[in-house]
Specification:
This protein has a single domain, classed as Sandwich (Immunoglobulin-like). Helix content is 8%, strand content 39%. The chain contains three helices and 14 strands. Strands 1, 2, 3, 4, 8, 10, 11 and 14 form an eight-stranded mixed β-sheet that branches. The chain is globular and about 55 Å long.
Length: 228
């Protein structure tokens, strides 16, 4: 993996990866391919991002995720070192750059990787804590696991508009992970953010067909019929 280097458990690295998006059945997606590495307890920082715009974009701290060195640049918020147990602003949201209203789903995955980029399933992803308290998004518990959080924007995302608030507002690493890993372990934290959307025409049926989700049961204000 590019920009990868071996690190000890006391210099954990942080990586964010944008994932491919689902296509078909009336679903419009964004390819958010982004990668960044931040070494905990050090001043080293490397980031690189590439993405393809298809309408509804992932945003981080209010800015569309794009360009080299654009991700996680302000994560430490003035700290020289990242402090386990402290919340750091990491607002993940969406922006609609199309001329049509869209209904949006945001999936965020969190997991651990070894230094060579392999997944480390033995380390509990629940130790990676994502803060979410927005009333504009609904978290679908039926689709969630310790690794995956699935959010639905409650109402239509208007053309050329951003979500009223982020689905995720902060990230925190449980300090117990340092003792858990020991001195010889070498791991990274990985996040992936996936944005899916359906157009307002027959959105309820489209969501059911594409994602198997009953938006009525979730309490979403999504339109059942064709848009005018």
């Amino acid at each position: 993996m590019e920009n990868a280097k071996k690190i000890s458990s006391r210099t954990l690295a942080f990586m964010v990866i944008g994932a491919l998006i689902l296509f078909g059945l009336g679903v419009v997606g964004v390819v958010q391919s982004s990668r960044a590495q931040l070494a905990y307890f050090s001043e080293q920082y490397v980031a690189g991002i590439a993405q393809t715009h298809l309408g509804v974009n992932l945003t981080e701290n209010g800015a569309v995720v794009e360009g080299e060195d654009a991700l996680l640049g302000q994560l430490l918020a003035g700290d020289d070192q990242l402090v386990p147990g402290k919340e750091y602003a990491e607002a993940l949201s969406v922006k609609n750059d199309t001329d049509m209203g869209e209904y949006v789903r945001l999936t965020v995955r969190k997991y651990w990787e070894t230094a060579d980029g392999s997944k480390a399933p033995a380390i509990d992803p629940a130790l990676i804590e994502l803060v979410s308290a927005s009333e504009d998004w609904v978290l679908n518990e039926d689709e969630c696991t310790d690794e995956r959080l699935v959010f639905y924007y409650k109402d239509v995302l208007d053309p050329n508009a951003s979500a009223a608030s982020p689905a995720v507002s902060a990230i925190m690493i449980d300090p117990s992970v340092i003792d858990l890993l020991g001195d010889d372990a070498s791991v990274r934290v990985a996040l992936s953010a996936q944005v899916d959307s359906v157009q307002t025409s027959y959105a309820v049926d489209a969501a059911k067909s594409a994602w198997g989700v009953d938006v009525k049961a979730l309490g979403l204000g999504w339109n059942e019929g064709a848009s005018e």
